[in-house]
Amino acid sequence: MRVAVFSDSYTPIVNGVSISIEALVEELRARGHSVHIFTSAFPRHKDRDANVYRMRSIRTPFTRDYPLAVPPFYGTLRQFRRHTFDIIHTHTPFTVGFVGLRWAESHDLPIVSTYHTLYEKYAHYIPYFPKWYTFNKIRKHTRYYYNLCDHVIVPSEAALRSLRRNEIRTPITIIPTGIRLNPKVTQQEARLRVGARQDEKMLLYVGRIAKEKNMDVLVHAAKLILDARDDARLWIVGDGPYRAQCQMLVRNLGIGDRVLFTGFVPRSEVSQYYIASDMFVFTSMTETQGLVIGEAMAHGVPAVAVHGGGASLAVEEDVNGFVVPNSPRDFAECVLRILSNPSLHGRLSEGAKRSAKAFSMSDMCNQVLEVYESAIRQRALPTGLSTPSDELHQITH
What we know:
Blueprint: E1 2-7, H1 16-30, E2 34-40, E3 52-55, E4 57-58, E5 68-69, H2 74-81, E6 87-90, H3 95-106, E7 111-114, H4 131-146, E8 151-154, H5 157-165, E9 172-174, H6 187-194, E10 201-206, H7 215-228, E11 232-237, H8 243-252, E12 259-263, H9 270-276, E13 279-282, H10 291-298, E14 303-306, E15 321-324, H11 328-339, H12 342-356, H13 361-380, H14 388-396
Parallel strand pairs: 1-2, 1-6, 2-3, 6-7, 7-8, 8-9, 10-11, 10-13, 11-12, 13-14, 14-15
Antiparallel strand pairs: 4-5
């Protein structure tokens, strides 16, 4: 199969979208499919992949880490037309994703799109307009874009509910992002590599440091945990626009010497932090899936998360972790209970490893290919007709 992937977010940007795309592309190519990626140009970045096509972009003051592709796209269109694609798969509904949608229409190609992000939760990043106005505009655009697709993939039930609230009528299939494990080392070796003490209780957060990640609750919970246990430390792996405010809050709470901000860590090295840690702590309520929770569990690390969004849906209560109310005290009490009970921690760790088997790369790819084939079949039928299998697919999803 020949697949054209369109996304505003792709490597060297490190987030759930780019990670998901890279994992899928690698698995598809391993099976002999041809995949070409169309995305925004990134300053000074050179691609090693010859099948990546970059569109001219600019950096705006409010999205400095996410270059914005700007027209005209004539050169990229000529490159697109050099190939004969079977399907277009978009991963964002913005400039590049919209180009993918229009080229699918103009070339009569089926289009599948993955809805990775609860975009309305990010309305505060758009300046000059009232938040309510931006929120409604995002919802309106979401409804327009995904209703023009042949099929939509979502990583979780939370994302599906969000689209249904937005009156998306397109068939939707839930396919969690697959997880690929790096070669494992022992916890002792991993701690030596990342610089953690052997005797500490290492609490780990991995992700962007951003306002919508609910970092204030995590830091205030850390204050309660660190006051109660001299051997605990919080490691925050990642970077983002809220880092300075987060560090100021840590200093003001008097825990600056026990909260470590690593800054950006290359994707290939993040697994060392998972292996080294004792528990994964996550307070974000804006995720569609919470890929980092699945990654932590794949390394046998139990998680504590707050109610809300798709991240908490990855946690099975008292099996691989706990889900608590959005309260620093409730969060801290749960973490302290696990840390003080080695048998409970061991049971949750084993449960985390078992749960992670559901995030198989092979299963993800199989399901995506089924969606591709369904969209291709559907496009080939006369308007208004559907095959029995496609009707059943829509009903069950």
